[in-house]
Amino acid sequence: KMWATFAVMVLFSDSVADVQRLLGCFRSPRSELAVLEVTEVLHCMATLLCAMRDRSIPISNRIHYNIFYCLYLMENASGIMQPVEEGRVDFGWADVKLTHEQQRILNHKIEPGQTVKIMAFAGTGKTSTLVKYAEKFSELKFLYLAFNKAVAEKGKRVFPRNVTCKTFHSLAFGSIGRHYKEKGKLNFSKMSVFSISFLLKNREGQSLYVRGKTVSQTLGNFFSSSDEEICEEHTPLSFKNTQGQMQPLSQEEKRINVEEAKEIWHNMKKLDGDAEKKYKMTCDGYLKLWQLSKPQLSGYDAIFVDEAQDCTPGEL
C-alpha cells in the first residue's frame, strides 16, 4: 500500500519540484525507507512509462520528465561526504549499506592499462562510489575528468586530497590553449557560421552562408573525431538550401568543404602574424591539438572520467 500510494502521488505531481518535495519527506528520521529503495521504484516507474509510450499508449510526457529529471538532480546534487563507518556511505539521506555492486567496485584494485566501466542509473551513487574508492586506495593518485567547470569544482569539494579534479578543456588549455591566449588568438566560443562565411571565396552553387554552415559542421565533426586530418568523412551528408529544403551534399561540394575547412584549420593553428588573427583558435580547436599531441597524463595511477558515454572519440 505504501508504494502504491507513493506511485500515485508521483503520477499526479505537476512538476519536478512536487516530486522533490515528496522525496524530501523520506529524509525524515521517522522514514524507514532507504534512498536506493526510492530510486529503484522511480527507475521502475520511468521504465514502465517509456514502455507505455513505445506501445503508443496515450500518456503525458510530463510524468516521465518529472521523474527522470528529479533522478538527474539527485545524482548531481549530493553534498560533501563525511567520514562514515566502514561499509556505509552518506548519500545526504539516511545512511545506507553499500550495495553488492558498489562493494565489488571497491574490492577491485585497478591495474595499469585497465579500463573499468561503471554502468548505473542516475541517483544510484556512481560519484559516491568513486569517492569511497579514492578514500580506500589513498596511496594512489587519481585524476577526475569532467565536462564542465561546475562539476569539476564540485569534485574538488567532494573527493579526498589524492584526487585532482579538472575538465578536459583545462588540461588542453594548460598545454596548448594558453599560447593562443597570450598571442590574442583565442576565441572562447565557437566560430560562428557568419564569421566562417566571411572567410570563404565566392563559388558557384551554395551561397556563402550555406557553405559556412557545412564548413562549420565539417570542422566540428573533425574536432570530435580521433582522426589526424580533415577528410570527406567529416562533411555533413546533407544541408538546408536557401529555400529551406534539405538536399544531399554532392561529391564536388564535399571536396570543396574539405578544402575550405583545411585552409581555415591551417590558419587557426598559426601562432604568428597579426594578419591571421581573424582565424582565432577555439576551445574545441585547442582540445583537438592537445589530442593530436598524444599527451601523457603522467603522475596519476588512474583516471576517473565523469559521464564517459558522452565523450567524443577525440577525448577518449
From TrEMBL:
Residues 1-17 form the signal peptide. GO terms for biological process: double-strand break repair via homologous recombination; replication fork processing. SUPFAM superfamilies: P-loop containing nucleoside triphosphate hydrolases (SSF52540). InterPro entries: DNA_helicase_UvrD/REP, P-loop_NTPase, UvrD-like_ATP-bd. GO terms for cellular component: nucleus. Keywords: ATP-binding, Helicase, Hydrolase, Nucleotide-binding, Signal. The keyword Signal applies. This is FBH1 helicase.
